[in-house]
Amino acid sequence: MSCIIGLKHKGRVYVGADTAASNDDEIRMRKDKKVFKNGPFVIGYAGSIRTGQCLMRSYWKPPNSRNIFKIIECIRAHLNEFSLIRDDGYIETTILLAYGRRMYEIQADFQVSESMENFTAIGSGKYYALGSLYTNRNYVGQIGPEEAVKEGLRASAYYCPAVRKPFIILST
Predict the structure, then answer these.
(1) pLDDT digit string (tens) for 66-117?
(2) Strands 102-106, 93-99: parallel, antiparallel or unpaired by DSSP?
(3) Which end of the chain has fewer beta carbons closer than 10 Å to its terminal beta carbon, N or C?
(4) Which contacts qualify for 107-113: CB closer than 8 Å, 24 or more apart?
């Protein structure tokens, strides 16, 4: 799995990710990035690599809208074109979508959530990252948002065998 972190700070959203891909038998380091920019969005994902690839490639153009539900319907329609939506309507992926000053978690059933906190995390290493982000929440101004995200990813990599360096961090 993965660890994807989102952190809001001073009008921007920082999204960081590890670079490992794993299953029950192995862990591999991949050149595919689990966090990337597409138009005005920074997108991170945990789960199906194919879903991330379809959202990353230039043939998907995000809608010119600030309405998160229109954005989600555009993502759903795009993923459906590639048969990535199961018969039950779910995908094998959780998505972290940053846009402007906001960040959203898109769950496997396309349910959208926006945290009341200035940080969130998805993937198998999320609990370790959330603990680190909580502990550092009052020090982000001192250590910087990128360092706070890296620290969360380091904590996740230390405790979760499916999370590995190098880490990639992008911002809106």
Answers:
(1) 889 999 999 999 999 889 999 999 999 999 999 999 999 999 999 999 999 9
(2) antiparallel
(3) C
(4) 108/47, 110/72, 110/75, 110/76, 112/68, 112/69, 112/72
Domain chopping of the chain, boundaries: 4-171
Q: How many whole angstroms from its chain centre is CA 99?
A: 12
Question: Are 172 and 98 contacting, i.e. CB atoms less than 8 angstroms apart?
Answer: yes
Residue 102: its pLDDT value, please?
A: 96
How do beta strands 12-17 and 27-29 pair?
A: unpaired
pTM over 0.70: yes
Name the residue with higher pLDDT: 119 or 28.
119
Residue 103, H or E segment: strand 102-106
CATH code for 4-171?
Answer: 3.60.20.10
| 121 neighbors 137 (Cβ within 8 angstroms) | no
